[in-house]
């Protein structure tokens, strides 16, 4: 049997905690033999949910914590003062090497700050980027960085490219992933100062399969496997993707429910449409890793449900088995 | 009768030139009495199209030019060397005050550079932004800047806010438009250095109705009327909007055409769906103005068809009648 992967899971974070979080943990240990989930949070709240399920003996453990960091709290202060919060306790399990990974649907800011302050960066990693996987017409792509470090420098972007490429190849299974830089035109001379300075560094980097510039228009088409970007632009791209998707789908639903005729029509296309839309459902692909830390830290959507939680837990297996952090150290010449 | 508005139109620019461009001109002069269109381009090519239509005597004029700037050409060089291109000749008509506006579906770069070099900035305008109107759940919003000036400074952003607010109110008819700054979180302390420096300037500006930060996720929801952003982020937002829309619609079309059942279903919802999607069709709202020039310069989509061309021409009326440039001078204290 392969080595056990220990995952600390924030049972208190996100809109659907603790119910959906714990359901996701139960699903994950049911699907894979080599995962143990450590649920971090309020003792009684977790107990009340856990007793609804049966699951393999000893593969779900409880770690008590009494505090919760709310989404609106200033992250640095929250991490420093709420020592018994589910996020701080969970991250400390990774720091102490008792767990391989920590997953949270809670405050993004606290997870990002706490990941750096508690788990710590791999020596030589300048800025650990947040790298969500997004669905595209051709499969999935990795957007790196999407919000961890605004005002990045070219040397950071080069590291994002290398780390993203490794994650995409060994965790997501895309061979020799095409790495492109987010730009406002296809030509090499296009872009802002950061992109113009980064471009030649990526072009001459032997560790990645560089595909040049990508315009935001071509992201959803799946024209690149890894998209390197500064966090502000990446965050705009990611949230625009989600926002436009939500609005278009809700408007189309409205159109389908407009009259008895359209309702009948909707009934006839429902199954086919559902299959198509499932491919564009970000929750199918698990959470976003914060790359370059001494351990794995994953941020799921705030509204994550059991499927996203379960998929995020299962992703931790490849991360450990493929020794992603050793590969990162090697490629960053650390 | 109101004063005649003279619009120079690049008959050679864009994927559908000259056919759709000229059709749009014919539509516009048919709809409004106070427009004269000056078609700039190859004499014979324009003649061949024009003879297909009847239109009010003297309301479409021809201005010959012999060169065309292609999309791939470096813009500055192209503007300097192709003196007899449709873009340069058209912009010169605005510079000479023979026309009030110039519209092109051709090279964005050449239109932006040419607008500044030939038509020139209003004295005091630091950087003229490109400000496309995008459809939202609640109507339309203006994204300013979307690609004219990368690496903007806070003082530029403040001008974008004022000019965008004026355009939205007096050309698009949105009373007291809500102006928000594109950001990666809703709180005032969020953002990159540029946003953090710009935010308080917008907050204390008496000339705009400032609504704080907007996340990209809320743009399509219509949460702001004017969205102020640096050109790189704005371009990413705009193109992500277009790209996600295209991919989702094409995938849904595929799902509807999958089987005889789904085809029947599609037939039943077609009309309702078309009406909904029409609201999200950017071509309904005309092209993107380049604000802050000594005249109006409008860039339409490269694939613009007659409707977008016609709508762009008609927008020039409000721009002139509402004396947008006088209002800009006043608000910028020029």
Secondary-structure blueprint:
Two copies of one chain form a homodimer.
Chain A: E1 5-10, H1 19-31, E2 35-41, H2 43-50, E3 60-64, H3 75-81, H4 86-95, E4 101-104, H5 108-119, E5 133-135, E6 140-144, H6 154-170, E7 178-183, H7 193-203, E8 209-215, E9 226-228, H8 231-256, H9 260-279, E10 288-290, E11 296-299, H10 306-321, H11 324-331
Our count of domains of chain A comes out at: 2
> Fraction of residues of chain A in helices?
40-55%
Uncertain residue ranges of chain A: none
Number of helices of chain A: 11
Strands of the largest sheet of chain A, in order across it? Answer: 3-2-1-4-11-10
- For the report, how would you describe the main beta sheet of chain A? 6 strands, mixed
CATH topology name of the largest domain in chain A: Isopropylmalate Dehydrogenase
How would you sum up the global shape of chain A? globular
Estimated radius of gyration of chain A: 20 Å
* CATH-derived architecture of the largest domain in chain A: 3-Layer(aba) Sandwich
Structural features, described:
- The structure is a homodimer.
- Chain A is of the alpha/beta class.
- The first copy, chain A, has two domains: about 5-125 and about 290-325, Isopropylmalate Dehydrogenase, CATH 3.40.718; about 130-285, Isopropylmalate Dehydrogenase, CATH 3.40.718.
- Chain A has eleven helices and eleven strands.
- Chain A has helices spanning about 20-30, 45-50, 75-80, 85-95, 110-120, 155-170, 195-205, 230-255, 260-280, 305-320, 325-330; strands at about 5-10, 35-40, 60-65, 100-105, 135, 140-145, 180-185, 210-215, 225-230, 290, 295-300.
- In chain A, the strands form two sheets. In chain A, strands 3-2-1-4-11-10 form a six-stranded mixed beta sheet, sandwiched between helices. In chain A, strands 5-6-9-7-8 form a five-stranded mixed beta sheet, sandwiched between helices.
- In chain A, helix 6 crosses helix 7 and helix 6 (about 155-170) runs antiparallel to helix 11 (about 325-330).
- The two termini of chain A are about 30 Å apart.
- The relative contact order of chain A is 0.17.
- The model of chain A has no long low-confidence stretch (mean pLDDT about 95).
- Chains A and B meet through helix 8 and helix 9 of A and helix 8 and helix 9 of B.
